[in-house]
Amino acid sequence: MTISTNNAAASGNSGMPPVEIGEAVKRFREASGYSIEDLAVTCGLTDVEISRIETGEDVDPGRVKRIAAALQMPASVLDSL
User: Fold this and answer.
1) Average pLDDT of 45-55?
2) SS3 state of residue 81
């Protein structure tokens, strides 16, 4: 898998690489006991969109915020995105 600089720039984050954002989302999802499918239903995204975020392929800030809200991720984590 490759991560283009376009994805990194499009993510809008100031320091965290897309793969690290995805890993953080995955850790919170698993800690919350959600499957990808359960999280997709909860936040209104598709399972494919969530999978792409977790692998760092697409870390669209709007989608990440929807996931973060569904997982009740602390604001301090979002600040680093």
Assistant:
1) 96
2) coil
